[in-house]
Fold each of these.
Amino acid sequence: MSRALNRSSFVDAALAVIAEVGVERLSMRRVAGQLGVSAMAMYKHFANKDELLAAAFEEFIARADVLPDTQLDWDQWLEKLAINMYNALSADMSWVSILGSLRLGGNAIAVTDSFVNKLGEAGFSAEVSVRAYMAMIQLVVGAVCMRASLQAEVGREGRRKVVVSELSPITRSYLQNADRQRLAIAPALEAVVSDEPISMGLPLLISGLRQQLAAAD
Amino acid sequence: MSRALNRSSFVDAALAVIAEVGVERLSMRRVAGQLGVSAMAMYKHFANKDELLAAAFEEFIARADVLPDTQLDWDQWLEKLAINMYNALSADMSWVSILGSLRLGGNAIAVTDSFVNKLGEAGFSAEVSVRAYMAMIQLVVGAVCMRASLQAEVGREGRRKVVVSELSPITRSYLQNADRQRLAIAPALEAVVSDEPISMGLPLLISGLRQQLAAAD
DNA sequence: GCATTGCGTTTACAGTGTAAACCTTGTTTA
DNA sequence: TAAACAAGGTTTACACTGTAAACGCAATGC
C-alpha cells in the first residue's frame, strides 16, 4: 500500500488535524484516517499518543520560525521573540490545553540556546540570561493560557457580571474585611481583556533587565 | 438515599479524586463512585464535566488561601502572593494540564481585585496594576507549566542529552549559521531546573515595577 | 388525593487509547 | 533458491470515556 508512510507523514497529518479541529479533538483514528490508514499503524512509529503529540509540537515549533533577525539589539530581539512565540501559539491556541503535559524536545531547547547566546553577547551573565529566558517564556505561556481562558469566557455568554454572592465564603469574608462589597476592578479588567495580553509583562521584564545591565557596569 | 447530595458534595468528591489521581484521570464515574452514586447523578447539578471542573477549580482557589497579610509592603505582598499561588498549583500540579481551558470564576477575579487594591494603595495607577497582575499571574502559570514539563522530562529517563541530530532542519540550519555545533546551554539549563522556577521572573518584574514607581514621583 | 418536580437510577451509544494476533511484503542469510 | 526475518500495515477486542434518553421514587404544593 502507501508504503511511503513514516514518522513525519504522521506528524504532518497530526498537524493538519490540529489545525482543523484543535489539539483536544485529535484522536489516533482521526490522524490515521487523514492518511487513509488504520489507527494502529501509528503504533509502529510512536509508542503512544503522547509521543505523537510531542513530535507534532516539536515540528510546530520548528515551523513557527520564531527566532528574530540577529541584527536587532538584545531588547528588541527579546521582545520580537516573545511576540513571535505568542503569535504562533495564539494562532493554534489549542496547544495551551496540553502545554503543561508536553515533553520538551530539542527544538524547544535550541531556542533557549539562541536566547542565551544573544543576551550573552549583550553582556548578561549566563545565569541571568537563563533566568530571563524562563521569565519570558513563562510570560508567553501564561499569556496564551489567559487569552484562551478569557476568550472562552467572553464567548460563552457575553460579558459576565461578577457579584459577591458568587464568591466562596473564604474569599467573601476577605472582601468584607477589606470593607468593600463590590469588585471595583471588573470594568478595568474587561477593558484590558481586549488588549494584547503579552504587552503587559514584557515591558516590565525588559526594563528590569536594562536596570540590571546598567547596575552591572 | 443519601439525599444530602448537592453541588458542593460533588465538588468535594472531585477535589478528593484530583488529589488522589490527578485532574487528567478524573472521570465522572470516578467522582460519582467516590460518593457511591451513579455517574449520571451529577448531571442534575452540573451541565457537563467542564462545569464540574470549573467549580472544583474555584473551590481549589478559595481553599488555597493565597492572599498574604495586608500589613506587608506592596513588593513583599506581591512576591508572597506569587509564591503562594505557585505553591498551591505545584502541590496539585495536574491543574496545569487544563489551566488553558478553564473558565475564570468569581474567586479568581476576587484575587485580582485585592491585588489591584494593594498596588493602588502603594501609588500605582489602576492600569499599571492590572498589567502587573497579568504579568505576575502569567509568570506563575508559566512557571508551573514549565515545572510540570521539566519534571516529566527528568522523570522519564533521567537527564537527556540534547544533540544536534535531533533538531529539525530549520533549527539546525540556524544553529549552523550561528557557527555552533553544540548546545552550550544544556548544562546551565539543567542546573536551573532544580531551582524554584518562580524565583526567576519575579525579581525582574518587581524591580521593573519599582523603577516605574520611582519614575512617576 | 393528585400532579408536579427534584434527584436519583438504568440502559445505551458513539468514541477513546491501545494490547494482541495476524498478514503481506521486501530483504538477508545458508 | 529456500528459508528466515523484520517492517509496517490490518483486524479484532477490551476497558473506559462523556452524556443523551427514559424511567422511578420521594417530597411538596394545590
Amino acid sequence: MKKLTLKSVAEELGVSTATISNAFNKPNQLSRAKRLEILERCEELGYTGPNKAARSLRRGKTGIVGLVLANSISYTVNDAVASTFISGVSQCLETNGQQLLLVSGAGDDLNNVNDFVDGYLCYGSPTNPNLIDALSKTTKPVITVDFNIDGYPSVNIDNIEACYQLVKQTIRPDDVVAVIGLRLIETQLTCRIYDVPMIDPVTSISRRRLLGYEKAFAECGVDFNYGQLWSIPENIESFAVRAAKEVLSNQPRPTIVYCMSDLIAVYFIREAIEMGLSVPDDIRVVGFDGTNEGQRFHPNLTTVVQNSDSKGERAAIMLLKQSKESQLLPFALHFGDSCPTNG
Amino acid sequence: MKKLTLKSVAEELGVSTATISNAFNKPNQLSRAKRLEILERCEELGYTGPNKAARSLRRGKTGIVGLVLANSISYTVNDAVASTFISGVSQCLETNGQQLLLVSGAGDDLNNVNDFVDGYLCYGSPTNPNLIDALSKTTKPVITVDFNIDGYPSVNIDNIEACYQLVKQTIRPDDVVAVIGLRLIETQLTCRIYDVPMIDPVTSISRRRLLGYEKAFAECGVDFNYGQLWSIPENIESFAVRAAKEVLSNQPRPTIVYCMSDLIAVYFIREAIEMGLSVPDDIRVVGFDGTNEGQRFHPNLTTVVQNSDSKGERAAIMLLKQSKESQLLPFALHFGDSCPTNG
DNA sequence: TTGTGTTTCTTAATCAATTAACCTATTTAC
DNA sequence: GTAAATAGGTTAATTGATTAAGAAACACAA
C-alpha cells in the first residue's frame, strides 16, 4: 500500500496538490462538485486530510498550547488546587480545538517543546530559574498565572490584599502568631526561617502572601518576626505534618497559625487534635485556597476562596485571543470553624 | 534581524547545512575543532539548534507521547487514581526526555494529535467509542491500560481475580448484597440496573470487576441479581452520594456493599453514618483502589490496593521500548475497619 | 469582436530540517 | 609506490504540506 500524502492522493485523482489542499482548507477556491468528489475519493482511499505536522511547519501554528507548571508534572497533577487550574485550562482548550502539552517546571529549557507549541501558559513560578529565563526569551506568546514575568500579561488574585484582610479579621491583640508558607526559600527542606533571603515577591506568590500578613500584623501591633515563620518545599502531607509538629512544639505555643494552603491547614489541625488541643479554642488555624477538602473537614476552614477553575479558563482565553491585558480575579474570605472572625 | 535557521546559519558561517546539522546531531561526522567552533558561533548568533518541528517532519519522530484518557481532561486530573497514573507516566517520560500531550477521552478522533505524537498510552476505555475506533486504526504504537484493544499490548491488574478474592474473604452466607459500579452502562445518570445490556467486559474494567464479584457470590451461594446493582457515570461526590442514598433506602437494606472505587465507598460510609447506621456493625462497606484517602478515612477501608503509579511507569516504559508483551501487575487485598474478613 | 472579470485549477517556491550519496585529501597497509 | 581505507566535508533529494502567482476557460457587456 502506497503512503497516503497530499502528493500521492493528487496523482491518484489526477489533480494538483493545491486542489486537494484547497478541498480541505479553502472550500470556495474550487467548484462544489469537484470538492465533494475529492473528499469522497479521499475517504475511499483512507486519506484523512493533510498531515498536521507538515501543515504546522508551513503555517507556523500547531494548535498545541504548552502549560508550564511550577513543579514537576507528577507532583502537580496530585495537587488539588493545581489540578483544578488544569481543569479550567483544558475545558477552554477543548472547546477551541486546541491541544494541551504539559511541561514540567523542573526542566532546564524549552528546546524540546518550543517548536511544537503556539504559546505558553505558565502556572506559578517554575522550580528551575533557567526555565523562567527560557520563557522570557521565547518569541511565542506567554501568559503567566500567579506570578509575573516582565512584559507578559498575567492572571492573578490580589494575594497581598487577601492575606491582609484575612489577618485583619481574625487576629487578636494578644495573639502569638505563626506562619507556615510554601517554598519561601530555595530548599527542599522543611525549615524555620530566621533572617535568610527569601524568594523575590515578583516570582513568589507565597512571598506576596507574607507581605499581606505582615502589613496587617504591623497595623494591629502584633509581634511577628522571622523566628515565627516556617516554610515547606512542597504542598504535601509529609512536609505539612513535619512543619505542624515543629510549630506545635515551639514555645510559647502559637495561638493562631496562618497556613498558605488549605492542605497545610488541614494537616496542622489533625496534628493539633492528635496532641489533645482544641481547634479553635486552644489554637486557631487559617488556610488559603478554599478547597473542597478544607470545607468538608471538621472543623471546616477559615480561608481565602479563589476559583482556580476560572483562573485556568481566563488564562487560556487570554492566550487564544492574544490579549495583552493582565487580569486581577476576585477572591472571597470564608470564615469557618477553624478560626472565627474577631469582629 | 534575520531569521535563524540551519540554512541562514550555514551561510553566515560559510559551511554547508549538513555540517551544521552534523555539529548538533552527529559529532563524529566532523572534526572536533570545527564542531566546537560551529557550536560557539551558533550560540553567539542565538541559534539554539535545529527546529524540532522540521526535524520531526523529516525523521518521523516528535518526542511527544499522547496520553488518551477515558474521560475529559478536566475530570481526569481531579480524580485521585487517574492523577496517580499520570504521575507515573510523567515521571518515566521526564527521565527519557519525552513530552506529554493530554488527549481527552471525549474527543471524536485523533486527527489533531496523531501527526504530533510518536505513540499513545490509553488509560481506560474512552467515553467516545469513535475514539477507540481511531486508536485501533492508527499506525502509531499503542499501549492500553485497564482495558484492551485487539492487537495492542496492555497493562492490567487481574480485576476479576481481585474482586473474586475480595468477596470470598468478606462475604457471609446470610448477607444482603449491593454493588455500586462505575459506568457499567452508557448513560450520564446514576441508575439501578435490572436487566439491561452492559458495556462489554473487554473494554469495561467495571464489568470485569462485576464478573469477579458474581463468580464468588455464586460459589458462596449468596443471592445476587441485577436489582442489587447500581451504576454511576463518573467517580465524583455528587453521583456517589446519590447512589449511596438510593442503596441505603432500599428494602431489605443491604448488609454489605461492594463499591468499585474507594471514593464511592468513602461517600457511602459518610451517608450511612449520617443515617445513624454503624459501619461495619449495621452495614459493611468494601472499596477498590487503595487510595490514601481511603486509608486515612475513619473507618479505614477494606479494599483492593493497586499501584497506579507503577502502572503508569510500566505503560510508559513499554511504549518507549516498543514492547509487545502485555503485563499483569500484582494487587493486594487490604482489610480495614469498614469490613472485617470473614475468616 | 474585443476587452474585462470571474471561476477554477496548476505551477513552483517555500517552510526548516535530515541524510544518502558523493567528492577530496590524507593515512595506513603491504 | 600503489591500492585501500578513513576522515571531513558538500550536494541535492526528501519529508508533507501551504500559498502566491499565473494560466486556461468561460461569461458577459459594449
